[in-house]
Design goal:
The radius of gyration is 16 Å and the shape is globular. With about 250 residues, the protein is an alpha/beta fold. The strands form 2 sheets. A 7-stranded mixed beta sheet has the order 1-3-2-4-5-8-9. The chain starts with a strand and ends with a helix. It has helices at about 25-30, 55-70, 85-95, 115-125, 130-135, 150-155, 160-170, 185, 230, 235-245; strands at about 5, 10-15, 35-40, 75-80, 100-105, 175, 180, 195-200, 220.
């Protein structure tokens, strides 16, 4: 498991990117965390962890917990986006004593609705032009897509086995076109400080999946924001991550 480590501190903020991304998705947020110690992982089958056995959120959660144990990290603030959000939630459920706080940005597994057609096309795309068009669907309508993002993604997907890994992973999300769920009863067991952040223009996982969560989970909804919250609202996201970590 590759991880980019920055900053100082005893209890790190562990950052888990979304499907098809890498640790670099968190760069803008890491810059806003005031020098706090951060570990931004590449999830199995992605980026520098392409050599790890690919799998869905459950596989990623177990891999992250193993990586933290190998680093002798007994407590961490878990932060996850999309698929990484599902992985962070599952890691917190599997090892609550290790989880100091949990911050989830448009997490997977919170509702049955999912844009499976878009995600399958995104998993298969290797060309910069194709990725550029697809990424427009991930961002809010008036939010700019970073100019270099499609090129960076296209470059990482040229590695041997990269596309095959994504195509294998994406199918773990669905059950007959519906998203596999983290049961509400499990979400009610999250006793650590937990925040969920969502954008009203999310066309991958609809915002209404943030509705009717257990009452102890803090929910923060942002208008005119799409699915790519780490890129679209880094200031607000960093503020909420730090608030939760306190």
């Amino acid at each position: 498991m590759f991880a980019a480590e920055r900053g100082v501190g005893d209890v790190p903020i562990v950052l888990l990117h979304g499907f098809g991304g890498t640790h670099a998705a968190w760069d803008a947020i890491v810059e806003r965390l005031g020098g706090r110690r951060t570990l931004a992982f590449d999830l199995p089958g992605h980026g520098g962890s392409l050599g790890c056995r690919p799998g869905g959120a459950g596989v990623a959660a177990r891999a992250v917990l193993a990586a933290l144990a190998q680093r002798d990290i007994s407590h961490a603030h878990l932060v996850g986006h999309s698929m990484g959000g599902a992985a962070a939630a599952l890691a917190a459920l599997n090892d609550p004593a290790r989880t100091a706080s949990l911050t989830l940005l448009a997490p997977g597994g919170f509702g049955s609705e999912i844009n499976h057609r878009l995600l399958r096309r995104y998993a298969a795309a290797r060309d910069e032009a194709d990725l550029s068009l697809l990424l427009e669907q991930f961002f809010g309508w008036n939010r700019p897509v970073p100019q270099t993002l499609a090129a960076e993604m296209a470059r990482t997907r040229q590695a041997d086995g990269a596309t095959a890994a994504l195509l294998e992973i994406v199918e773990t999300f669905f059950d007959e076109g519906l998203q596999k769920l983290i049961p509400r009863a499990d979400l009610e067991r999250l006793t650590m400080p937990t925040k969920v952040i969502w954008g009203t223009q999310d066309r991958v996982l609809p915002t209404r999946q943030a509705h009717r969560l257990p009452g102890h989970i803090g929910v923060h909804i942002f208008e005119d924001v799409g699915h790519m919250l780490p890129y679209e609202i880094p200031d607000a996201a960093a503020h909420l991550i730090l608030e939760n970590a306190r």
